[in-house]
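Protein modeling request. Please complete all fields; requests missing the sequence field cannot be processed.
Requester role: graduate student
Desired output: 3D structure, C-alpha cell encoding
Chains: 1
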Amino acid sequence: RLVERGFNQALEIARPLSVALGAPLEPRLLVRAIDTAAQSGVAPSERAGNIHGAFEVADDALGKIQGRHIGVVDDVMTSGHTLNEIAATLKRAGAARVSNLVFARTPPH
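Delivered output (109 residues):
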C-alpha cells in the first residue's frame, strides 16, 4: 500500500510524536509476512482471519523488542484487528507492553 499512496501516513504521524515524547522511532520492527487485502475492503466478520499471521519480527529487531514497552502508531483504526495482530506479534517476540496510538477511529459497523 506504500507504493499506492507514495508515503506512509502512520510514519508521518509517528515522527513528530517520537520527538515530542523523546522516544526512539523504529519503523521496521515488523515486516509483512503475508500480503493481505486491505482491511477496509474486507467484510467485518472476515477481518481477523484476513490479517492473522500477516506480520513477523524483522531479522534484526528482536533485541529492540524484548522487555520493552512498544508504542504502535496507526492513522486510522476500523475494527482493531490489525492493531491486535501487531500487538500479539510483538508480545510473542517478548515485548513487555504494547500501546496502540491511533489518530482517527471509524465508527463501528
